[in-house]
Amino acid sequence: MTSFNTLFNRMFQEKSRTVYLIYLIQAFASLCFSVWMIISMKGDPNVVVINVVINYHHEVTNHLIFYLLIFGVMMFSTSFFAYFVYWIISSIKNEKINRSQTWRLIPISDTKFLLSNFGTAFISYLWLMILEGITVAVTCLPVLTVNEVRKNFSRSQQLGTQDWWGLLGALVLVILLGYAWYAIVSLINLSSRSIMDFLPNGSSKFIMFIVRVVIILAIIWLLSKATTVVFGAIGNFIPFLVDGNNDLQMSGTLVAFLLFDVVVTLIDILLLNKFVEAKQN
Predict the structure, then answer these.
(1) How many CB atoms lie within 10 A of CB 238?
(2) What percentage of the chain reaches a pLDDT higher than 90?
(3) Model-level pTM greater than 0.85?
(4) Collapsing DSSP states into helix, strand and coil, what is residue 107?
(5) 3 state DSSP class of 100
(6) Does pLDDT of 196 surpass 90?
(7) Res 280: pLDDT
(8) Which of 25, 91, 112, 170 is such that its CA lies 20 to 30 A from the CA of 41?
């Protein structure tokens, strides 16, 4: 049997190539946008936008700092588009791996196989965020040499314990939502494939489209019903959730999404194991 770590590392290497490609394209596009903006300003950073970006009202003597700042802002701005592109590409790659005969021949359980597939896709996404974050931090860090910027940072209030718990809860929620995205996409693909195998003329793309639309509508309806039931059950079990306690409300939301991820994953494993056959690459 192949170990989970071995399979995880191999899948991560495969999906990290997409991350590097998206990152390089994003960096090149950000560089082009930065050069275009610098040319449009005729190379002079002493324009109105400087007051908005770094709140610095004096003459800018170090143009390199401002040019780096423009590139950092462009990297941050284009990151949202890069994330969207990654989610689409990684979802398609996940489903190809799920149905790939080469991957499915690896001696490992379907549970570990599916968790490795979902997990590597999300870890690769986090790796993309880290690469972009490091780039933005390095290019914007020289701005801290400006006295006015340092003063503004020193005047800002420090985050309290409750704020840090809120950030941690938001991070966990993002992780659960990211995992839910892959689980739902696999549910739609695996369930539609399973249904098509029992229908005549299974190669019809139109029938596949109709089946997937029906499944998506059914999933949306079930999610709305399940959300009401789960939150209602959690509210009855933890009556304090009806109060204005944000920490408890966040905890209830995290528990609900965790249960949702577990249930959808179990359904995906069942479909992958019992109904979906691998195909040749």
Answers:
(1) 15
(2) 16
(3) no
(4) coil
(5) strand
(6) no
(7) 57
(8) 25
